[in-house]
Write a structure and sequence with these properties.
The structure holds three protein chains of three kinds.
Chain A: H1 5-8, H2 13-31, H3 39-57, E1 64-66, E2 71-73, H4 75-97, H5 107-125, H6 129-147, H7 154-185, H8 190-199, H9 203-220, H10 229-236, H11 239-264, E3 266-269, E4 274-277, H12 283-303, H13 308-327, H14 332-363, H15 374-377, H16 379-393, H17 399-413, H18 417-443, H19 456-474, H20 477-488
Antiparallel strand pairs in A: 1-2, 3-4
Helix pairs in contact in A: 2-3, 2-5, 3-4, 3-5, 4-5, 4-11, 4-14, 4-20, 5-6, 5-11, 6-7, 6-11, 7-8, 7-9, 7-10, 9-11, 10-11, 10-13, 11-13, 11-14, 12-13, 12-18, 13-14, 13-17, 13-18, 14-16, 14-17, 14-19, 14-20, 16-18, 16-19, 17-19
Chain B: H1 4-24, H2 28-53, H3 57-87
Chain C: H1 2-29, H2 36-39, H3 58-75, H4 77-87, H5 89-112, H6 125-128
The chains are: A mainly alpha, B mainly alpha, C mainly alpha.
């Protein structure tokens, strides 16, 4: 049942909060004298906080399709809205603290950040290919600008230029796939397209369309071979923006990937918690291959990196590969595992980047050599970074371990043993390069042994990021339950 | 009356020229133009499908694509100016500060 | 259906014939005596110098970028205008909000000084950090 435009408004409050904040930021920028004031940062915090509150407590009602079927208001969308807004909140804190951005106009930065957030909200709830395309571009275009925000720095501008070229091409290929789907089915509604495709038999155009759409989504989650942009962009962008790219748009990319493929090319078997393929296209196999390729390339190339930002970029590619494992299983337990992993990944990855911001504020560098002796220079930050890195590896008792257990258990349960073996081997490889940083921090002599001060506010935020990483390693029941509920409310 | 397949062929050719341009050319300006060509190929497909099916959604989608393409081009060109000021080149093979 | 297009065809043919006639007649009647001065590019009566492939002021580029954005956003109002009467007052409000958001963007440009044709050096943020 579709709701009309006016009736939909009250299910759209989080998006309104973000939009209103963006407009306020523009007005604030126009009327104020000093564009470098931190007022815009606090205003954005307020706006994103309001959005989280509104998304979390918005009137329930799973399976409501609002704005004439453009957008879904369901548990799945709410889960991703809260997740991406939380990531944005942490990134705003990080940005206010970062020396990369100090001395530059602040308002525009937050405008781009919040525009991306709005795009992610819409991307995780879009049920119409027109809205889906617009949302994807609303995520992409401000991201280009965020990556190139350090105008005058060659690294940043070059990264942004590459991002534009890759991004525009990938979305062009994706939308060509959309045009094929529209031509085949005569509908822009995702659910409607799925129904007509299930009835028809046109296999070759369908195969073409599913591959072309996979290019667009694969670029968004940085899956190999569509990952080429991500290491460059991650290294060149301001560090808080890098942290943001590695969590926010990636999560939204997974949301749209699941929603699109599980609606268009598969149908739920009621009662069993499983999906079955409705088309002749064997996309789960295609994505299983991508998953194995993604984690292998990500981990192997990460081994060679000397820049910590770039190393974390490749590690985040590898993590996209792990999460893709849950996507190919055609079971709700698989999707639950992705959702749970995303929550865990949010805290550990943002935490790792936050320590990078703190260290590079002091050392003006992000090479591994800048981290030597951090154990004595800033003991607390070093311990926190070690916790995040061990969690990223998937070592018990940290949260990353539980996330991986959920993924592996479901992969084995569904009998895709080869993928589980590849992923296990990859985890071993990742241990090598994560411990390289830990070793540099604790067992190598620093060139400059002066203490790195960690301000009280930064320390508090670090504690807030460490806490979930530790707690979710021993007491994960509630988050897993929320993830399960959200998948159950995946309605179109 | 022109058969719908002719339009689809035209759109595929436009899209193909665009893809070749993106892959083969070195000048970033020309790469951005090729991306526009790809998107215009998509537009032809949407409008043709929409008019064949008698569904206005195809035309609406084409409008949206045009708008987004303009925004994307504006951002891309603005970044290109910033890049040219720094490096005095628009050759994509010269972008090698960031590698592996 | 096809007959309606005949009007267009007649129009195109008439247009082509008119242009051909004009150009053909002057070629036929006018005396032809080309010389180096006559064949040179017309540049307001001055003797032309240099190639036409010169660098333009970057301001042209920026203004063109601004124009493109606002121009294409207006294209979105066309479908709205077609069905406006059927959709009623609500559609009017929606388009109004859309235009207000665009106006906020215009105000931003104004504040940034991107609408000024001549920018002094201290206005230009990029120049501030230059050595």
């Amino acid at each position: 049942m579709f709701l009309g435009n006016l009736a939909s408004l009250r299910y759209f409050l989080p998006e309104f909060a973000v939009t209103a904040t963006i407009l306020l930021l523009v007005v604030l920028h126009v009327v104020t004298k000093s564009p470098r004031s931190t007022a815009s940062g606090f205003l954005s915090l307020l706006g994103v906080g309001a959005a989280i509150f509104l998304a979390g407590v918005a009137p329930a009602g799973a399976g409501r399709s609002i704005f004439e079927g453009m957008v879904a208001h369901d548990g799945f969308a709410v889960f991703f809205k809260v997740l991406t807004a939380l990531a944005t909140l942490v990134v705003i804190f990080m940005s206010m603290d970062s020396r990369d951005l100090a001395g530059r106009s602040q308002a525009e930065y937050y405008i781009f950040l919040l525009s991306t957030l709005l795009g992610m909200f819409l991307l995780s709830s879009a049920t119409d290919i027109v809205m889906l395309y617009l949302a994807l571009e609303l995520v992409s275009i401000p991201s280009y600008l965020l990556a190139g925000y350090l105008k005058g720095q060659e690294r940043s501008t070059e990264a942004a230029m590459k991002y534009v070229v890759y991004g525009a091409t990938a979305s062009g290929v994706m939308i060509y796939g959309f045009s094929i789907l529209f031509g085949l089915t005569g509908s822009t509604q995702v659910a409607e397209i799925g129904r007509s495709l299930a009835a028809g038999k046109a296999t070759l155009p369908m195969l073409l369309a599913s591959v072309m759409v996979a290019v667009g989504f694969g670029y968004k989650i940085a899956a190999v071979p569509f990952h080429m942009w991500s290491p460059d962009v991650y290294e060149g962008a301001p560090t808080p923006a890098t942290a943001f790219f590695s969590v926010g748009p990636k999560a939204a990319g997974f949301a749209v990937l699941v929603r699109f493929y599980y609606t268009v090319f598969a149908a739920a078997d009621p009662g069993t918690g499983l999906w079955r393929l409705t088309s002749a296209v064997d996309w789960p196999f295609l994505f299983a291959a991508l998953s194995a390729l993604t984690m292998t390339v990500g981990n192997l190339v990460a081994v060679k990196q000397s820049n910590v930002k770039r190393l974390l970029a490749y590690s985040s590619i590898a993590h996209a590969g792990y999460m893709l494992m849950g996507f190919v299983l055609l079971s709700s337990a698989g999707i639950e595992a992705i959702l749970f992993y995303l929550v865990v990944y949010l805290f550990m990855n943002l935490g790792a980047f936050y320590v990078v911001v703190l260290v590079s504020n002091a050392t003006r560098g992000e090479e591994i050599s800048d981290f030597t002796g951090l154990g004595s220079r800033a003991p607390f930050a070093a311990v926190a970074l070690s916790i995040f890195l061990f969690a990223l590896t998937g070592i018990p008792p940290f949260s990353g371990f539980i996330g991986k257990v959920y993924l592996f258990a479901e992969v084995i349960h569904r009998g895709v043993y080869w993928l589980a073996v590849v992923a296990a081997l990859n985890s071993v490889v990742s241990l090598y390069y994560y411990t390289r940083i830990v070793r540099a921090m604790f067992f190598e002599e620093p060139k400059d042994a002066s203490a790195i001060p960690v301000p009280a506010v930064s320390g508090a935020l670090l504690v807030l990021l460490v806490a979930p990483t530790l707690i979710l390693g021993v007491y994960w029941e509630p988050v897993a339950r929320i993830a399960a509920d959200s998948v159950r409310m995946l309605a179109f | 009356m022109i058969a719908p397949s002719a339009y689809l062929l035209l759109s595929a050719i436009l899209f193909g020229i665009g893809v070749v341009g993106v892959v083969a050319r070195k000048n970033i300006l020309i790469i951005l133009m090729s991306v526009e060509l790809m998107l215009n190929g998509v537009n032809v497909a949407f409008v043709a499908a929409g008019s064949y099916l008698g569904d206005a959604a195809g035309g609406v989608f084409a409008f949206m694509v045009m708008t987004v393409a303009a925004a994307e081009a504006a951002v891309g060109l603005a970044l290109l100016i910033a890049l040219y000021r720094l490096k005095e080149t628009v050759d994509i093979t010269e972008l090698k500060v960031l590698k592996w | 259906m096809l007959v309606e297009y005949a009007t267009v065809l007649v129009f195109i043919v008439l247009g082509a014939v008119t242009v051909a006639l004009m150009l053909g007649l002057q070629r036929w009647f006018a005396p032809s005596a080309p010389s180096a001065v006559k064949l040179s590019t017309y540049e307001c009566g001055e003797v032309p110098y240099g190639s036409s492939w010169v660098q333009f002021n970057i301001r042209f580029y920026v203004v063109a970028l601004i124009f493109i954005i606002f121009d294409v956003e207006v294209a979105l109002l066309y479908p709205w205008a077609v069905v406006f009467q059927r959709l009623g007052f609500l559609a009017f409000i929606e388009a109004f909000i859309f235009i207000v958001i665009l106006l906020a963007g215009l105000a931003y440009l104004w504040k940034e000084g991107d609408l000024e044709w001549v920018r002094t050096l201290q206005d230009t943020p990029a120049k501030k950090g230059a050595k």
